Amino acid sequence: MERAPALDIEPTARERANPLAGAVRWLFRTQEGILLVVLIALCLLLARLSPVFASERNIFVLLSQMSMTAIVAIGMTLLIVAREIDLSVGSMQAFVGVVAMQALNATEHLLAGLAVALLAGVAVGLVNAGLTLKLKINSFIVTLAMFSIVRGLAYTFTAASVQNHHKLESFRAIGTGFAFTLPGIGRVPWPVVIAAAIFALFAVILNKTTFGRAVYAVGGNPRAAELSGIRVDLIKTLCFVITSVLAALAAFILISRMNSGQNNAGFGFELQVIGAVLLGGASLAGGQGTLLGTLLAVLLLGTLNNGIVLLGINSSWQVAVNGLVIVIAVLLDARRRRSLGQD
CB atoms < 10 A from the CB of 110, how many? Predict the structure, then answer.
């Protein structure tokens, strides 16, 4: 069972004596290192091709947009490591968006709207887990059905977008406000701070807690995990719920940015999230993947899509790139598994 992409990355005695050699080896022999190198090269290229790319405004707008993908990708990483998947996270952007905005308009209270959003996430997560684990239906099929059901509910709740009638300043600040200013860098948007906090929290949970170790054990070998006393269904249920709750939180940030709930929001969002998780080194076979790899993949894909827009390339290529990334990530995963003799 491997947590990180299965490459030979154990440091040699020479590398332990020479940290620089170990760092170079990490950069070019691990999934995370390669993603970091490609990301830096892409940023340098785009900065040269487009003067707008390196501007403070573009960078923070880009980071704010990527924050929502990163938040959901964190949950999806846990779920894929646990050998499950959730295709309904895109439709959640629409469903949670319209019901949360309706709650905000009705109550004119920020916490009420946020509570409705998170409870909707818990409900969808529990349904996905129940159908998958209790009825023994493949999570791909279950969440594909939920993808349509949740999208249909979004259209049922409203035939058009739900506009902001409550005018809560604190609500608008979540998606478009700034948390603080860093000297020499500029103002840092709230979505970036929220995503960073969630990343730090789940990085600790996944790498330093019993629950995190159980997630890897369940994904690596569910039967062995069960025999060792791990409650496999409980671990997977928690992963489903975490993913849906984070998707609901991202939807809440989205409606704050748009200042309305859109019943057509989130089309293709699930492909962005899953593509980033797989490109980051997680395996559909379960048992391996890292949040660092996922984060770097989100940054890489977001930067690539931003470059497509800035360079005036047809925006339809963004959809094609997301599909291509999934194909490449699956091929890389198959290659890693063959190298370990897992196929």
Answer: 18
CA torsion, points 326, 332, 333, 339, in degrees to nearest 10? 170
Rounded to an integer, what distance in angstroms lies between the CA atom of residue 189 and that of residue 60?
A: 7
Which of 131, 141, 129 is CA-nearest to residue 233?
129
Under 8 Å between Cβ of 286 and 83: yes
pLDDT tens digits, one per residue of 32-73: 888 999 999 999 999 999 989 999 889 998 999 999 999 999
Instruction: List the structure tokens of 35.
Output: 């993603």
Q: 3-class DSSP state for residue 273?
A: helix
Please say if the pLDDT value at position 184 is more than 80. Answer: no
Dihedrals φ, ψ of 280, to 5°?
A: -75, -5
Which of these, 204, 198, 116, 191, lies nearest to 157 by C-alpha position?
A: 116
Q: Where are the beta strands (DSSP E) in the chain?
A: 162-163, 178-182, 186-189, 260-261
Is-contact 248 116, C-beta < 8 A? no
- Provide the residue count of the chain: 343
pLDDT in tens, 62-104: 999 999 999 999 999 999 999 999 999 999 999 999 999 999 9
- The reported pLDDT for the residue numbered 6 is 41
Provide the β-strand partners of residue 163.
260
Q: 162 has which bridge partners?
A: 261
What span, in angstroms and rounded, lies between the C-alpha atoms of 82 and 220? 8
Domain ranges of the chain: 54-266
For residue 208, what are its two tokens?
């330093």
